[in-house]
Specification:
The complex is a heterodimer of chains A (551) and B (437). Chain A has 551 residues and is of the alpha+beta class. Chain A contains 16 helices and 19 strands. In chain A, strands 3, 4, 5, 10, 11, 12, 13, 14 and 15 form a nine-stranded mixed beta sheet that branches. In chain A, strands 1, 2, 6, 7, 8, 9, 16 and 17 form an eight-stranded mixed beta sheet that branches. In chain A, strands 18-19 form a two-stranded antiparallel ribbon. Chain A starts with 9 loop residues before the first strand and ends with a helix. Chain B has 437 residues and is α/β, with parallel strands linked by helices. In chain B, 26% of the residues lie in helices and 18% in strands. Chain B has eleven helices and 17 strands. In chain B, the strands form five sheets. In chain B, strands 1, 2, 11, 12, 13, 14 and 17 form a seven-stranded mixed beta sheet that branches. Chain B has a four-stranded parallel beta sheet with strand order 8-7-9-10, sandwiched between helices. In chain B, a hairpin with an 8-residue loop joins strand 12 and strand 13. In chain B, helix 1 runs parallel beside helix 11 and helix 4 packs across helix 11. Chain B starts with a strand and ends in a 5-residue tail after the last helix. The chains are: A alpha+beta (551), B alpha/beta (437).
Chain lengths: 551, 437
């Protein structure tokens, strides 16, 4: 159901609300095209929301895909510029792990090679505002990170940027909407309509209301990520891809202030890093040929990640794992290559040769270079639409809230809230944190703290419900990390649901259904990691939500 | 290190929740000298005010309240249909279940209302009607099966914690079963910062203050209309039962007043915990704070909070995961004596299946509403509540287990948690004191 303004259809219909879909929707809308974005679930429900939460330059790809590293580093710099509130520095340590200093020539060669390698990466660092690497002695290393296992001989540092990938997606979609795009979440593209070898329209179904619709399209951009091969199969066009499943674990607290690069049991490189209020261990990389909707983390993936992190930080075994989460990478197709060696480059497929002119598919790419990818896509769309439009400005126009980063201390003092909560609010909303707190000033009840860990105020939930395209309660998992922590929503889920229900006019039955849906999503991420205190927490959650709530 | 003070007693009860307290008091009633070792308030202190014993599993959802089976009959039906459930294990003794419930509710009569033999139907903050064999005194007037006329479901204008419309929806859903009509209102209370941002305990304290309950009663009275038969309020009507907050509001408003059940944080849970403490002290149970260390069972010394306890019998009432009686550190085990965890439900009810070392993903199902073997894990016991070892032998003739540490049921969600705690606690306490059921 296109809006009345678009009876004649859209210049471009974008399928998929991941970072590429949202990014290209924003770019096209800013260039003056009429845009419809369709996402079958919520924004950032796929790989974009399950990324490691970094816009890193991709040091791993430097030898094989130097252009990937250059592109990612440069674009990371732009992202820092358009969403400064949403990024934070993560200094990584890359420890050297040999037995005895100087005993093996090979070790010394390896260290030297690593230093040279990291030194080369330093050349890219200025592009993204990163700091140059530093060589640390063993003493310096253990002073910085006493939790490392003994016997290490030093390290080099590596400066990267952390980001909230889910909000990055959201901000692109919000910006697209601000520039006139129709953004429809929980709306699945069911089929493509062809006329004479050309895709001319998209049929879709709204999963919340059940209504069907059709939108005419000048160009259709398929940015459905891991769902692309399946969508292509059922719509008669091939999307070559080597989808890979990646699993991360979250720990209940920051283990330290530095990311640690470690080696998994099979020799793969992986990491343990502090990220916002938690730590993340990642990641696995395995071919995956099923339906991304059916993914689950398995027991061996959990063990693989814990073992890898514990090889350098033994205390990780005692840490409380709060959830295991996953996504499907859309790496470029290649036959006979190991998962890790697949290129992280991206490609745009034009399906004219498949009898589907006017249809583009996007495959591959990285979160860090999403903006450049979107620009490239938008260029292609513009060429196909053949309309005189404005130039790309996505690298210089801030995302919503990105124009300024207010001081949390000042906000806290002015509005009478805790500084730590103001800081989380600024992190998530940038300059719009002021608007959120205006709600709290108008209605003092809105200063109620729903979650102390994430610093979620009732006002933030209400503001998000009003302004951030919430259609289902679980959308708040991605807007403000509601019910994502170790408590799984014990304190916050019901009051937050009540606020959202009030804002969106849900009746009690809808509210209960949404609450059950939110809790089910959390359960899926916890069932593979229920151990220690997390298991006790699960018992409490179950007692409250199922025993008492009858959900 | 100086030798610890040695205490010799008849019964050592490990755990101070509903199961442990019932066991200790039952043993005490039988004349035993009882010591209780308790490391922290367990899940009873976090409970919401209901004492759920049994709901008929065979009952049609649309059966009227009046036609539903009584609590004991419901427990018998659970025993007949749930392999591995403690009620099934104790099916030959279920005729004593009601004695146990009356004993426990009598012991804690400072906060618990006398049970009637059938389930009361109480509203929860989630908009659900929850059956309970017993409940706190402050809640009895909210029994949906008893209220005639309109039930007024109240929230607070100044506080976002409870949505009376949501709570009332629980009553609407069971109105056709013989429940009252429900009407949701916001009471003009707590519209000032300390109230608006308070946690449940803060609000309970505020209502205990002189004049506060009377003021609340006046506010309530203003919104009453003809036909209103009772009012339920958020479960924050005072922490101390002696403050009589609910009665004071009711007296002022001229209408019966009750709390609905609580989620967390739970004022009623704290109230229950305090009632248990007071009763244990009055009955002469010596309570030692701290974990049981180095304990190997009856007749052998165990260190508890700097003391050394030697007891003729032990009752393990150490709870499940929240209580800490069962823990999982890569593998499931019982925390005090290191006993094997081998009782569960569903496919894992069969004790020959060794599931304690399996990954949690294989002990759970993707649908959270399905029975979850991991959350029903606990000790396997015989019909006398003796824990069994991996070969199915009694671990010790004078070690008993009671409450959530016993496996085969999911105390968090299957609606029998408190009932199992009370029944097994009562039986184990008496047996440990040398008295048969």
């Amino acid at each position: 159901m296109a809006g009345p303004a678009h009876q004649g259809g859209y210049d471009v219909v974008v399928l998929g609300g991941g970072v590429n879909g949202a990014g290209v929707a924003r770019d096209c809308a800013m260039r003056g095209l009429s845009v419809l974005l369709l996402e079958k679930r919520d924004l950032a429900c796929g790989a974009s929301g399950a990324s490691s939460g970094m816009i890193h330059g991709g040091i791993r790809y430097m030898t094989s895909d130097r252009n990937v590293t250059a592109l990612a580093s440069r674009d990371a710099g732009y992202i820092r510029h358009i969403a400064p509130h949403l990024t934070f520095r993560i200094p990584f340590l890359l420890p050297f792990a040999s037995q005895e200093e100087g005993s093996h020539l090979l070790d010394r060669v390896t260290w030297y090679a690593t230093e040279v390698y990291v030194g080369t990466y330093d050349l890219f660092q200025p592009l993204k505002g990163g700091k140059p690497s530093v060589r640390l002695s063993a003493d310096e290393l253990y002073r910085l990170e006493p939790g490392l296992r003994p016997g290490l001989h030093g390290a080099v540092t590596l400066d990267e940027w952390g980001i909230d990938g889910q909000r990055l997606c959201l901000l692109n979609a919000l910006s697209a909407a601000d520039h006139g795009a129709d953004v429809r979440t929980w709306t699945e593209a069911t089929s493509l309509v062809r006329e004479q070898g050309r895709v001319v329209a998209v049929r879709f179904r709204d999963a919340v209301t059940g209504e069907h619709g059709e939108a005419r399209a000048g160009v259709v951009v398929n940015a459905t990520g891991g769902w692309s091969p399946g969508f292509g199969r059922s719509n008669g066009f091939p999307v070559p891809m080597r989808p890979g499943k990646g699993v991360h674990l979250s720990l209940d607290r920051r283990h330290g202030n530095y990311g640690i690069i470690c080696t998994a049991v099979d020799g793969r490189q992986m990491f343990l890093m502090p990220h916002e209020m938690e730590s993340i261990i990642g990641t696995t990389d395995d071919d995956f040929f099923g339906n991304p909707d059916d993914l689950d983390a398995t027991a061996d993936e959990v063990a693989y990640l814990v073992d890898g992190a514990a090889s350098l930080v033994p205390s990780v075994r005692e840490a409380r794992i709060t959830r295991a989460w996953w996504g499907v990478r859309t790496t470029l197709f290649e036959y006979g290559v190991e998962e890790d060696d697949l290129s992280r480059d991206h490609r745009i497929y034009d399906h004219a040769a498949d009898g589907s002119a006017g249809l583009l598919s996007f495959v591959g790419g990285k979160l860090a270079s999403y903006r450049a990818q979107a620009e490239e896509l938008a260029d292609r769309v513009v060429a196909m639409v053949g309309k005189g439009v404005k130039p790309c400005r996505t690298h210089e126009v801030p995302l919503p809230g990105g124009d300024e980063v207010p001081s949390p201390r000042e906000l806290a003092a002015r509005h009478g809230i805790a500084e730590v909560i103001a800081a989380r609010l600024v992190y998530r909303h940038g300059s719009l944190a002021r608007e959120v707190l205006r709600l709290a000033d108008e209605d003092p009840r809105m200063k109620l703290v729903l979650c102390r860990d994430e610093g979620i105020l009732a006002a933030e939930v209400a503001w998000i419900a009003r302004h951030e395209r919430v259609r289902r309660l679980q959308d708040l998992r991605r807007r403000c990390r509601l019910a994502l922590g170790g408590c799984g929503g014990l304190d916050c889920a019901r009051p937050a649901a009540q606020i959202v229900a009030r804002e969106l006019g849900w009746d009690a039955d809808r509210l209960r259904a949404e609450l059950a849906d939110l809790l089910e999503a959390g359960w899926r991420e916890r069932r593979a990691v229920l151990d220690g205190w997390q298991l006790a927490e699960e018992e409490l959650l179950r007692a409250v939500h199922r025993g008492l709530g009858g959900l | 290190m100086a030798p610890a003070t040695r205490i010799e007693c008849d019964v050592l009860v490990v755990g101070g929740g509903m199961a442990g307290a019932t066991a200790a008091l039952a043993a005490r009633e039988s004349g035993a000298r009882v010591v209780m070792a308790r490391k922290s308030p367990g899940s009873t202190g976090l409970s919401g005010g209901a004492v759920s014993v049994a709901q008929d599993p065979a009952c049609m959802p649309d059966a009227p309240f009046a036609a539903r089976s009584g609590v004991v009959e419901s427990a018998r039906r659970i025993a007949a249909t749930r392999p591995g459930h403690p009620y099934q294990l104790l099916r030959d003794r279920l005729d004593r279940l009601w004695n146990a419930v009356e004993f426990a509710t009598g012991q804690f009569s400072s906060v618990l209302a006398p049970p009637t033999g059938r389930n009361r139907w109480l509203l929860t903050p989630f908009g659900h009607a929850h059956p309970a064999a017993a409940c706190q005194r402050t809640m009895a007037a909210g029994d949906l099966a008893e209220v005639r006329g309109t039930l007024l479901v109240c929230g607070f204008e100044g506080h976002l914690g409870w949505d009376p419309g949501l709570v009332a929806s629980g009553a609407v859903r069971v109105e056709s079963l013989g429940g009252p009509r429900a009407r949701a209102v916001l009471l003009d209370l707590f519209r000032w910062e300390e109230g608006a941002l308070g946690k449940p305990f803060d609000l309970a304290r505020l209502l205990e203050a002189p004049g506060a309950a009377e003021e609340a009663g006046k506010v309530l009275k203003r919104v009453l209309v003809r036909g209103d038969a009772a009012a339920v309020l958020p479960p924050v009507l005072g922490i101390d039962p002696a403050a009589r907050v609910a009665e004071r509001i009711a007296a002022e408003a001229g209408i019966p007043v009750a709390e609905f059940l609580s989620d967390l944080p739970s004022v009623p849970g704290l109230r229950m915990h305090r009632a248990i403490e007071a009763r244990l002290a009055a009955a002469g149970v010596e309570v030692l704070g701290g974990e049981v260390r180095g304990g190997a069972g009856p007749d052998l010394p165990a260190a508890v909070g700097g003391r050394e306890v030697v007891a003729r019998s032990w009752v393990l009432a150490s709870g499940r995961f929240v209580g800490g009686g069962i823990e999982r550190r890569g593998e499931l085990r019982e925390a005090v004596l290191g006993l094997p965890v081998q009782a569960s439900e569903g496919p894992f009810a069969d004790p020959s299946i060794r599931f304690a070392a399996r990954p949690s993903a294989t002990l759970t199902l993707a649908d959270s509403r399905a029975p979850q073997a991991l959350l029903a894990a606990g000790l396997r016991v015989d019909g006398d509540l003796h824990p069994l070892d991996a070969e199915g032998r009694v671990v010790h003739p004078r070690v008993f287990a009671a409450g959530a540490v016993v496996g085969g049921h999911d105390p968090a969600s299957d609606g029998t948690g408190m009932g199992v705690a009370i029944f097994t606690g009562w039986l184990a306490g008496r047996a440990a004191a040398g008295r048969g059921a």
